[in-house]
What does this fold into?
Amino acid sequence: MTTFAFLIIIAAGLAGLFWLVNRERSALWRRRKALLADCRPLFERAEQVDGVAGFPRLAGEIAGRRVVVELLPDTMTLRRLPQLWLSLTVMTPLPDGAAFGALARPSGSEFYARTPDLPVRLEPPIGLPEDVMVRGRRRGAAFLAQAERAVADLMADARVKEVLVMPAGLRVIFQAAEGNRGQHLLLRQCDFGDERFDPALFMRLYDGLEEIARTLLPAAMLAQLPETRGQRA
It folds into this structure.
């Protein structure tokens, strides 16, 4: 075999490998785009775009409020498999000073968490484990006391990683999936599977944030709020 023929074979092999890798990558991104497909009918005027690493970011309105949900892959975990977090944000005006966050099992590597950035350390609400980090702004303790039962109810699910309350709205971070052990150990890849996020679970998280908001709003504002979907059902 001549050198030229050998180079042709190598080039053809590399081209075939590139095509195969590109095909697998495209299929992976298509599967990722569909992970929030079952939740999309819950939204009015829903818009979906590609977020981090091709995972979807879905935004729209629920009960007249701006809601944003996105999936965040986390490969910075130590001694654990990669995690896929669901971030659900509900934009609704809250009283000025209502600023606090609760972060479960803090490790210092939670790039998505905002609780560690808040200036004042607060006592954890009754019903939360002692290893929950709770921080807020100066007036946050009084608002946390109002909402402590609703916060504890939402964080009773061990998959809830963070609950954040700010004057512009609320957010919950939830463990949506864990990486495939074999793929991670052998290939150092993040494979979270193709299971779509459950819309009933999505609404439980949404209703949990709504309940926290209701505990923080004055009676006059509370009377004008629509019922959450969970309550209407």
Observations:
- Residues 3-33 form the longest helix (31 residues).
- Residues 101 and 164 are 4 Å apart (CA to CA).
- Residues 3-232 form one domain.
- The first strand starts at residue 44 and ends at 50.
